Amino acid sequence: MSDERQTIELPITGMTCAACVRRNERALQRAEGVDEASVNFATEKATVTFDPARLSARDLVDTVAEAGYGVVTQTETLPITGMTCASCVARVERALKHVPGVLKAEVNLATERATVTVLPGAGVRERLEKAVRDAGYGVAETPPSGDGAAATEAALDVEQAARRGAYEALRRRVVIGAVLSVVIFAGTMQHHWFPFLPDWMNNGYFLWALTTPVQFWVGARFYRGAWAALRHGAADMNTLIAMGTSAAYFYSVLVVLFPTLFEAEGLTGAVYFDSAAIIITLVLLGRLLEARAKGQTGEALRALVKLQPDTARVVRDGSESEVAVADVRPGDLVLVRSGERVPVDGVVVEGASAVDESMLTGEPLPVAKEPGDEVIGATVNTSGSFTFRATRVGSETALAQIVQLVERAQGSKPPIARLADVVAGYFVPIVIGIALVTLIVWLIFGPEPALTYALLNFIAVLVIACPCALGLATPTAIMVGTGKGAENGILIRDGAALETAQKLDTIVLDKTGTITEGRPAVVEVLVAGGDTAAEGMDADGMDAGELLRLVAGAERGSDHPLARAVLEAARERGLEPPAFTEFEDLAGHGVRARVEGRLVEVGSARLAGERAPIDELERRGAALRETGATLAFVWVDDRPAGALAIADRVKEGSVEGVHRLRELGLDVIMLTGDDRRTAAAIAREVGLDDVRAEVLPHEKAGEVERLQAEGRRVAMVGDGINDAPALAQADVGIALGTGADVAVEAGDVTLISGDLRGVPVAIELSRRTIRTVKQNLFWAFAYNAALIPLAAGVFYPAFGILLDPIFAAAAMGLSSVTVVSNSLRLRRFRPR
User: Fold this and answer.
1) What pLDDT score does 659 carry?
2) 540 is annotated as an active-site residue
3) Which residue in 45, 86, 585, 671 has the most C-beta neighbors within 10 A?
4) From the candidates 236, 332, 345, 510, which is the catalytic residue?
């Protein structure tokens, strides 16, 4: 048992009385490894002393959760500098996880960021930064905390400036290293390839003088990184390069200083300054190309945050003024002119226009906006001008939530990455071991000059091993994939959701609000004595428009959803509902009112009573009932005047969306609480065979669970409101957002536009992204598995093949660039 003890404070939520305190204390005290636990009801905190060797802070949080309470946590994001490979990632993660109060730490090599979930407290960030620096890495300076997308943009600008500076510094070193390496190589090969050059260029002291700045200035980062790792008892890619090039450099120095010693031993006394210099230059060139490619993986996020304008035109106290977007407050009136971006989320109060929302929702056509409609910040006003009232600003806006979600997704790791993480922890020590074995075997069994062969193969093994490709394989693909999703209005919560989505075989669609619009609408107006809404006219000369106008007048006094559908239909046709008197709500049957002196009654067939028969309307409405419509019959002055067919219309895109899902080889099931006839009608319209009708909201999760029990991998698609339990139960929950109400927490995947066609796009994207991850991991593993034996000389006895260390360096640099470039191919993804 460890003598070291840790004491932490857990801010507990959900406690209401002394019994809650006792329950938490008892749960914590029973946890194995806890020495002492006390809970304070006034401060709502638990103070726990425990043995970190036997359990972690994460275990304590889980203990509180199992007792039925919550723990407040916070997330810190640290921009890390100095990481070069997967081994660096593993070391930084290990250092952060050892900080008291850290629950989870994920480090992303592609974004060079650490995302840490930690218990809140004073000096948390300082402790995290210190842990990173103590591990031998740096933390980039971050701008003062702000609000919303503007704060993210400021942080990204700082990081980009730092990366640009580092890139330029690296480029200078690569150029200088390349110039010196060319001269060193020419001098070394003067007798073989360049006899026209002067003899002094082949002088050992001249070559030594040129190689020294390449070794210790151009390649200084390798020594700094190796020393930092060594101080912590670890090794990384820097260690491999420093060891390999140092072996070549110092061997050559000995040959220059003591040539007679080597001649006495029968050795040729060749120098390998060119190998040392060219290896360092090529590895840094690979880093330079990798840095350039990595910079392109985050373009989608940068493009998102730059969508928000810097200023807004606000109307206050009757006067118009331009203020910074950060100064806009909820309730402010904001004026937007043609061609300008909407600065924040809000509701139109005056004017009308069409707004291009494609940059957030992926919808290509501008959306008409008029008073009462929502507008989303960062969208473009394409025509006219309007004034809207700000409702969400700063971190509350849809754009800020989208940026937050994309950032979180890009920093996450799918389960498939765990293998690479495990391998990375042991990779460098194993490679050093293989290199030493290579050196010894070639010294003992190799042909003459054995020392030369042994040295070159030892260097080749160290140089060719590439943990960088392992570290970049997953995060670069996840970054590009989630960014591409955001461009198409698809928000993916994390890498795990991406990985699970590509394994799905069954899609469960909620009907209301998912396949259909979720609100009733008038789809047909039947007039007594006529066959169609256009031609129908009763004996009094009443046509469909007049009938709808009178019914709208009667329904003005009702708040029933069907009444709202009638009023909306009248508004769409430009009809002004007349005033009503003597309104009466006929409970369960309909409404009655006097409109323009006429008695208008609207309701179900049960309202007929002693009135004239409605057989003709019933007959004509039978076909509409088969499509799932509800018939509302109309009597005017006790005579049947017509009927209104009201239905929940299928969304534009639902038919195509279902078709695309089936093309992808997925089983598609519709789940609804509606009666079987209505459900079957909607299913026929969209092309579905499998329908589960009359399923109540609380039973939907059970239906999903039953499908999972059959061995299926199930996605549930719903609106994120009454479908929340089913979304949570499914392997992947896909929530349909609607404009500014982005349901960020509702599902693993959120479709901003609410269009069902986004579901097959999300699944296609997940399949492409995870396929890219697998290709990258295969390349990284295959590269090392194939080329390390080649570098060690395993194939020399049978085929006479050896790998020059210079080519090994080139191959190592190429491997990282290949992985990043393969991930960047995802940027060409286009939905079908």
Assistant:
1) 92
2) no
3) 86
4) 510
